[in-house]
């Protein structure tokens, strides 16, 4: 288990990824899989993110090393709607458009988030869930516009699409680190960006970026593409299947009776 | 066994979907209804997005109606001429319904439209059926038996544009069947139902058609209207999920055969009162959701 991981690390190190900043400590990381296929029986998956800190000199003294890892799904604009009572029934009244919200977002840290990351760094790199959502603001005349963004986070957290996993990154000997992130079954297709931040005293010392490609394959891919690119053919095919199934059922039942 | 639905983009238990199809098939076999009015709300409850639920159940109804209509054609209980007039109205209605559906989807009110339509129509039909089966049971208990009133002359017979419907033995204006067809088409598009539960009473009480041709003729119309609706939803919204439809169809086919046998064990009045209770139950659940403060006031939708 350890050996292949070390080999993978060696490979990554050999590629000598140009990491941001010219720090004394550089982070390199790898993923257990960088391609996720959504098949018909896809039921969510778990990815292992692991890596190491590369340094030429001994580890500096001072605040301890912390690691913050984010996994971010494709951004999309969403409309958040709020129900209100109108003539005895509850219906959608106010609506706020959020310009860009990740379809999936997970933050994993090695310790308490507040200690691992300063507010300034969070603002600059948009690391926490709240910062990853961009909204230009609600239209005038809507009371409590902040609650719409909060609702978006709350609803997505409840289904595992947004996660804050504090203290789940395990650091060994101030050098090796690893964590697991659960991806739920209702994943959206696209490129998932993985960012690894190395921090000391809340300040980012170094960072690393890679991506996971999530894609429907096989039957799922075929049906989805057909439905969107050849909608007429897809519709006719759906009807043909229904007619065939109905006819077959009727014929089978008659055989059965006689 | 979880299965990922390519269009709904959710992962659902395949056996749950087969079971849903089976239950609805069982009921349709027992009561002779399409079951669309049950399958759409049930799909909402398991977490299928409403737009996908409506479009896909229209597709499923094509399958269940085909197997029903073949039996009726063999027994010569389909009035094709009346069916075509109803169909003409149905296609128009379906076109209007899909427009309305898409317009409200943009406004974020499509769930409300679907739920309100369900509450109103299920409430009316359920109450009428319930009352009727109660009187039928009371009548059956009285000596002398039933004396059905039929073929009354009403406003339907005063309209122009009369046409002869030989199989039904009718000579009436085409306007009422066209209107009934249109209403059913609209309902098919926004509720994902065949509309038999509206059309059958309308054919009997409004048009005065003989009961034996009513089911076959309505099934004939339903096949084409739901197929057309499926096509419209598939080409404008991309919301027909073939995999979901297939699971529901397979479950439904098996359920329907079991249901037909079960139905033979019960008396007609008992069946009808059971169906009425079921309709009212679904209606009550949906009304409850509209009237009671929801636990989560906010919902996430697409901006398109």
Automatic annotation (TrEMBL), chain A:
Pfam families: Alph_Pro_TM. InterPro entries: CHP02186-rel_TM (IPR019088). Keywords: Membrane, Signal, Transmembrane, Transmembrane helix. Residues 1-23 form the signal peptide. It comes from the Bacteria. The keyword Transmembrane applies. The chain crosses the membrane at residues 232-253. This is Transmembrane protein domain containing protein. It comes from Profundibacterium mesophilum KAUST100406-0324.
From TrEMBL, chain B:
InterPro entries: TM_pro_TauE-like, TSUP/Inactive_protease-like. It comes from the Bacteria. Belongs to the 4-toluene sulfonate uptake permease (TSUP) (TC 2.A.102) family. Keywords: Cell membrane, Membrane, Transmembrane, Transmembrane helix. The chain crosses the membrane at residues 12-39, 83-101, 113-140, 170-193, 213-232, 239-259, 271-292. Pfam families: TauE. This is Probable membrane transporter protein. GO terms for cellular component: plasma membrane. The keyword Transmembrane helix applies. It is found in: Cell membrane; Membrane. It is a multi-pass membrane protein. The keyword Cell membrane applies.
